[in-house]
Design brief:
six-stranded mixed beta sheet, six-stranded antiparallel β-barrel, globular, 360 residues
Length: 360
């Protein structure tokens, strides 16, 4: 049974399965979360929520754990996070002063091969208490490791459920995800460049403290950075593997600009199914969810849930990509998307994750 879970406005999609929470079946504060996964009943998904006490959901930045569960994200499980219903009603949202609502821009498929057209894009998979889920993400440059980044930018609600929850589980990034891709050497054909497990995630404290599923609360701080790795023994970084990484453009002045911004993501709600990469190009306007929160950006785009966390990109004169925002929430029916302004708080998140792995 497919359901939609709202998180920060534009929901990720989930599929109910055997990983539904069962209170008291394990300690979320266990010193050996991987051991809890190994002790799971054979008939239930390893690393599933049945091994954790959801009432004690890990919340703080220091609590993030994401032990690798070999073979968890196979093609069938990825397909189970591929579609859902629209999740955000923009008409019900409190507003400050915003630019006029933009005209809808139809999402267009990104031409294949994705490695040439959108090398920094990928799909994010993770587990929620209600089942497998999916978002979008972007490979970004690591200031501490030029040319060898293992960092992924996404939305905060794709890694943490905000004030009413905590860190999500079994988070992986699949660069160049393409369900239609040809099989290569017996590998998962939808993951041509491998499955990268997050060994660290960080979002804004504002999202952790205030982010909710209603009225866009916390959306102005709905961003996150992951550090990912492949299997033990792998020597190539994520950036080297995909062949590119986007710079992060902090404090970008987009409203009123003549420059086109390209939103890239994997929409999964109808009429999309999450299997392919889409994009929308438009000129952003200013958007306010509340007078006491920073203004966001808003663009016409008909992408649906699953595109959450996808990069808002501009291309420099030298051809390089700059990420200036990420998809946080959208309207119903699908006509526009909104993303946060990336200021000092976003810079601190990137700097913190980069510094944590500097020299490693």
């Amino acid at each position: 049974m497919l359901v939609a879970v709202v998180a920060g406005g534009l929901a990720y999609t989930v599929t109910k399965n055997s990983t539904r929470p069962q209170g008291g079946s394990g300690s979320i504060g266990s010193a050996d979360p991987a051991g809890a996964a190994r002790r799971a009943d054979p008939g239930r998904t390893p690393g599933g929520w049945q091994d954790w006490n959801v009432r004690g959901w890990l919340r703080g930045a220091a609590d993030f754990v994401n032990p690798v569960v070999d073979g968890l994200w196979g093609p069938e499980r990825m397909a189970g996070a591929a579609e859902g219903e629209r999740s955000f009603d923009g008409s019900a949202m409190p507003r400050g002063v915003s630019d006029p609502e933009p005209d809808a821009v139809s999402a267009r498929p990104v031409p294949r091969p994705y490695g040439e057209q959108a090398p920094t894009a990928g799909r994010l998979f993770f587990d929620t208490p209600k089942g497998p889920a999916a978002c979008s993400g972007t490979v970004v440059r690591d200031p501490a490791r030029p040319g060898r980044s293992n960092l992924v930018w996404t939305a905060g609600h794709c890694v943490h459920s905000g004030k009413d929850g905590g860190w999500l589980r079994n988070i992986v990034f699949v660069p160049g995800f393409d369900k239609s891709g040809p099989a290569a050497g017996g590998r998962n054909s939808a993951a041509p460049l491998g499955i990268w497990w997050a060994d660290w995630a960080q979002t804004s404290q504002q999202w952790i403290d205030h982010g909710t599923s209603s009225a866009g609360a916390g959306a102005a701080f709905d961003f996150a950075v992951l550090h990912v790795r492949q299997a033990a023994g792998a020597t190539r970084s994520l950036e080297e593997t995909v062949g590119a990484a986007a710079d992060v453009g902090f404090d970008a002045e987009l409203s009123g600009s003549r420059s086109l911004v390209d939103i890239v993501g994997y929409p999964a709600g109808r009429p999309f199914d999450g299997s392919s990469l889409f994009h929308c190009a438009d000129r952003p306007g200013s958007f306010s969810v509340a007078a006491d929160q920073p203004d966001m950006y808003r663009m016409g785009c008909t992408m649906t849930e699953g595109s959450s966390g996808g990069g808002w990109l501009v291309r420099r004169g030298d051809g390089g990509l700059v990420l200036v925002s990420n998809t946080s929430l959208g309207s119903r029916p699908a006509a526009w998307l909104a993303g946060p302004h990336l200021g000092a708080d976003a810079r601190r998140v990137l700097t913190s994750v980069s510094g944590r792995f500097a020299g490693k």
